[in-house]
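To make this tangible, we now present a fold written out as tokens:
***
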Amino acid sequence: MPRPPHANRDLQAAPDGISRRRFLSASAGLLAAWGGLRGAAGVRRAAAVEPRFLLAWGEPGDKPGQFRANVGIALDKEGNVYTAEFRNQRVQKFSPDGKPLAHFPVQPHAGGLAVDAEGNVFVAHWNSHKIAVYSPAGERLREWGAKGTGDGEFQLPGSVAIGPDGLVYVPDQGNSRVQKFTRAGKFVGKWGSLGSEPGQFGGGQAPGGRFAGPQFVAFDRDGNVYTTDAALDRVQKFTHEGKLLAHWGSESSEPGGFGPPPVDKNGNPIMGGPIGIAVDSQNRVWVSATNHKVQLFENDGTFLCGVGGEGTEPGRFDRPHGIVVDSNDLLYVADTMNGRIQKFAVA
């Protein structure tokens, strides 16, 4: 079976039998430590925005409420939580407190997903090189894309997002670009190329590779577009037309950096870096990374605070992928290789 786009290790089970008091106590200690970290010059603490663990749900498995490589996460207009699973080939829907509401099968290799105002679910099918749209009941409504480099074609589209302009943005990883479409799938525009210069993606990777381009995208209130680039350990900020506005990041393990990379079962480093991205109501930028962290930045790249570290305790992760922030500034994290979702208050 193909591996998820950014994962290289079998799922780990979350610990059983942890009391709520112990769970919250462990979380509070971890988050306090993260909030007090200071790194290199320019890294500063913002105690008022330290994430506060609220709850977690899920465990590895294929039953409702369980996950295998839950890569994508999104919200509908009611605040319900949707996930897409790379290995279980399905979408699940939950209430904000983790109650299972629905699930339906999707085509293979589901990555990131988005939900429009009508409740239709857009899924990036990574190895299938296409975007598919499903009704709220799970009926496949339409799809577009095929493997290639032309307009409207893809190589390993890792995720999908609907911008404030109503257009569908697709990080076309293997083609080192972002493409834009109407919700009906009509091509509108694109930007990006393979390279290491600001505005490019995936420098040092072979053309068509899974780390050769942007991973996820998100939008601020002004309609600007933020992208993650795992190969270059950076976030880039663009206008909706693709004009570069800012970029930041490093492979450092200090706060604000996206390293070190994870290791395989033999202890050898594997490709990693920033993956998921979300923007909250204050235009602050949340970024997940394969270094088992979720970090918060000002939209100019100034580091604020973070949460994480490898593990199964509350507030720890195993290669988190998709993240999303709701209208109440509640942060949901797809804790991908732990097979669960974690929820934090970040206001």
Residues 27 and 314 are 5 Å apart (CA to CA). The mean pLDDT is 89. The first strand starts at residue 52 and ends at 57.
